[in-house]
Amino acid sequence: MAFLALSAAVLASPLALAQSRTSTTADLSGGFTVARLKYTGGGDWYSDETSLKNLLQAMKARGDVRVSQQKEGVVTATDPDLWNYPLLFITGHGNVKLNDEEVRSLRRYLDQGGLLWADDNFGMDKSFRELMQRVYPESPLIELPFSHEIFRRPNAFPNGAPKVHEHDGGAPRVFAVMRGGRVAVLYTFDTDIGNGIEDAGVHDDPPAKRADAMRFAINIATYTLNH
Question: What is the set of domains in the chain, with CATH numbers?
Answer without folding.
Answer: 2-226 (3.40.50.12140)
